[in-house]
Amino acid sequence: MRFTTLLKSLVGCEQAVPEAAWFDEESQVMVVAVRPRSQARQRCGVCRDRCPRFDAGAGRRRWRHLDAAGLPLFLEADAPRMSCPRHGVVVAAAPWARHDAGHTHGFDQQVAWPATEYSKTATAQLMRIAWRTVGTIVPRYQCDADAGIDRLAGLRRIGVDAISYRKGQKCMTVVVDHDTRHVVWMSDGHGKDVLRSFFDALGEDRAHRLTHISADGAEWIADVVAERAPNAVRAMGPFHVVAWATEALDEERRESWNRARRHAADPDLARRLKHSPHALWKNPEDLTDRQTAKLAWIATNDPRLHRAYLLKEGLRTIYRIARTGGAPAAAQALHGWLSWARRCRIPAFVEPARKVRRHHDAILHTIVEALSNGLIESTDTKTRLIIRRGFGFHSADAVTALVMLCLGGNRPILPRRQLA
C-alpha cells in the first residue's frame, strides 16, 4: 500500500489531499498536513461560494481529528482569508470542518455518539476534551445533521406538552409527531407565546392541515390550538383525566382519616384509613390479597370513601369500554359518570367533574379517535432520563440538541460505520 493511500484512509475526507505526516514530540500528537482539492479551494467559510483571496491570514492552522493508534490526530493546513461579497473578509472554508470550529466533522460525529449514550463527563474523558467542549459540539453537530431536513413537513397528528428540565419552574415545550413517534420541535419556556412560535414556524397552510392534537388540560394549549389550528381535533389522553379523579380520591381519603381521628371512638379506624392509599390508588387487577381485603374493609367501615373509589374506577372504566365496546358505549358511559359525579355529594369530586365537563369534547375525541397522550408522556420520561444522564446539560439549547439527537429520528452513528 502506498503511503499516500494510507494517509487518505487516515484522513477520510474526499475533499482533502494529504501531503505529509509526522509525530509532534513536544505535544505528543500525530499531525497530517493536508490541502483542499482544487474544487474546494478559495471558498467563503460561511456561504462556501467561490471568492477572491484577500491574504494569507494567520498562517497554518490545526483541527482535531479522530485518534489514530491511541494518539490524538490533528489535520494541519493553510488558513488564508477570502474576500466574500456577502460576508466580507472571512477565513477560507475547510471542507473537513465547520467554519470557526477547531474540530473536524468526523470528530464532532465521534463526540455526538457517546453524548447520546453516556454522561457528559464520561464523554469528555473518552474523547480527551474539556467538559464544556462536549456541550459546544453537541448543538453544533445537531445543527449540521438537521441541515436540509424539514422536521415539520407532513405533520398531521401531533402531541404537545411542557416538561420541567431544571428546578425553579424551568420548562420546555415539546411537540411530538404521533405518526413517526419522533420529537419534531422543542423550545425553552411554556405558555401561549411559546406555542404560537411553533405555529409560526409551521406556517398557516400546514397548521390548517393538522387533523389531531393531543395534550393535557392546560388552557394555554387549548386556546392556541383553537386559534391557530381550527381544523384539528383536540384530544386529551386518559392519563390526566384519571389523575384528576385519583387526586380527588386521595383528598377524600385524607378527609376521612381526619374525620375518624376527630370523631370516631375507635383510634384503629383512623390508623387503618391513613395507611390505605395503595389499596385505593392501584388498579383492581393489580391488587394484592391484603390490599383487596383492605378495600373490602373500607367498603364496610367508610361507604363514602368507597364511593369515591368507585368514582375513580368508573372514570377508568370508560376508556376500557372504548377499547372493547366501542365509542358510542364509552360516550354513554361518560355521560353517566358525569351524572353520577353531580349526585355523589362528595366535595372533593366537584372540581374533577367540572374539569371533565369543561374538556368533554377533548375527552370524547380521545375515545372516538383512539388517540392517547401516552406518546408525549413517554417522551417526557425519556427527556428527563436524558437530562439526568447528561450530568451537566443545563442550558435549554444543549438540552434541546441532545433530545433532538436521541429522539428526533436522526440519531448519530459512529464515523465510518454503516447502519445495521
List the helices and strands and how they pair.
Layout: H1 3-11, E1 16-24, E2 29-36, E3 53-55, E4 60-68, E5 71-78, E6 81-84, E7 88-91, H2 105-115, H3 120-127, H4 131-145, E8 157-166, E9 170-177, E10 183-188, H5 192-202, H6 204-208, E11 212-214, H7 219-228, E12 233-235, H8 238-263, H9 267-274, H10 277-281, H11 289-301, H12 303-324, H13 327-343, H14 350-358, H15 360-369, H16 374-390, H17 396-407
Parallel strand pairs: 2-5, 8-11, 11-12
Antiparallel strand pairs: 1-2, 3-6, 4-5, 6-7, 8-9, 9-10
Structure description:
- The structure is a single chain.
- The chain is built from 17 helices and twelve strands.
- Strand 6 and strand 7 (88-91) form a beta hairpin.
- The protein has 420 residues and is α/β, with parallel strands linked by helices.
- The protein has helices spanning 3-11, 105-115, 120-127, 131-145, 192-202, 204-208, 219-228, 238-263, 267-274, 277-281, 289-301, 303-324, 327-343, 350-358, 360-369, 374-390, 396-407, and strands spanning 16-24, 29-36, 53-55, 60-68, 71-78, 81-84, 88-91, 157-166, 170-177, 183-188, 212-214, 233-235.
Task: Sketch the topology as an H/E string, one letter per element.
Answer: HEEEEEEEHHHEEEHHEHEHHHHHHHHHH
Mean pLDDT: 85
Tally the beta strands: 12
Query: Which structural class matches the secondary elements?
Result: alpha/beta
Helix content: 40-55%
Query: Major β-sheet, in short?
Result: 5 strands, mixed
The portion of residues forming beta strands comes to 15-25%
Shape: elongated
Please give the count of helices: 17
Low-confidence stretches: none
Distance N to C terminus: 29 Å
- Rg estimate, integer Å: 30 Å
In the sheet with the most strands, the strands line up as 10-9-8-11-12
